[in-house]
Amino acid sequence: MVSAAAALFNVFKPPNIPRHKVNGSRICSQIMNQTVKFRLFPSTNVPFQAQSNPRQTSSTVTCSATDKPTSSSEISSTARIRSEVLSPFRSVRMFFYLAFMASGGLGGLIAATQLIGALANPSRAAEVPEISKGLAIDLGAVSVFAFLYSRENNAKNAQLARLSREESLSNLKLRVDEKKVIPISSLRGIARLVICAGPESYISESFRLSQPFTDRLLERGVLVVPFATDGNLPSFEFEESEETSDTTPKRKRLWQLSPFDWSAWLQWLDEQKKMAGVSPESPVYLSLRMDGRVRGSGVGYPPWNAFVAQLPPVKGLWSGLLDGMDGRVL
């Protein structure tokens, strides 16, 4: 059993799955064509940059990631496949944990019967310490592997629950223009969405605070989805003048998306707030990675300057090298 226990710690690591390069200048045309493929890729964690504007501060409350397990009936086959892709050797590890537990349990049962026989027979009294030592090793091995299996199973359930919630988010609809409605999943690999959810005043202030960062946000493939929880989406005012002739189209493109089916969006958001322990009235933001997974969330205004500092451009010299640097998944 000692050798079996040592074999456990040869831990397998899942391979990196790269994402191919995305051309940022074609974001709008690719949205209209809806020619998107599902992709997953690893991420790195880049420290947040401090806010310079006190009105932009936000508390980091994760509204979309919780370790609360979801029942098996609620987990779709797509979520299970994604879980296997993200952790391809988890099932192998769990199988060996069970095998080692069974081996240790069988060895412990044999050692226990031998110990009983040795205690009942005075002539075998000298064998008692050696048998007791073997029994202790078997029981220790069973305990260790049971702990490792439980930890692995809890991680699996938490990942499945997280992927299931992300899948529900990806099925929500967005309105691109008066004639086109698409699901969020259609933007995987095309844009990094930032969802601003709150009352009309919160949306208007977020719109104003994003103005200095418009160009750099678009360079990083960021598109904003304003969701007015009170049902009163503000009409954004874009300045039309010679001085803003270049900025206005970019502002319109940054804020061009809007939620479709308000009740479905509100239901999903209320569920996330409830699981995260956030007040239903609190305005929140969610930042999605290029692959559609949640990379950050919080209460308050989106940290536009932190997005600019953390996210790499979707085109240019460093686009291929920095692919996947969207931050860790929550």
Automatic annotation (TrEMBL):
Organism of derivation: Parasponia andersonii
UniProt-annotated stretches for the region Disordered: 49-75
Protein name as it appears in the record: LOW PSII ACCUMULATION-like protein
Keywords tagged on the record: Membrane, Transmembrane, Transmembrane helix
TM helices/strands, residue ranges: 95-119
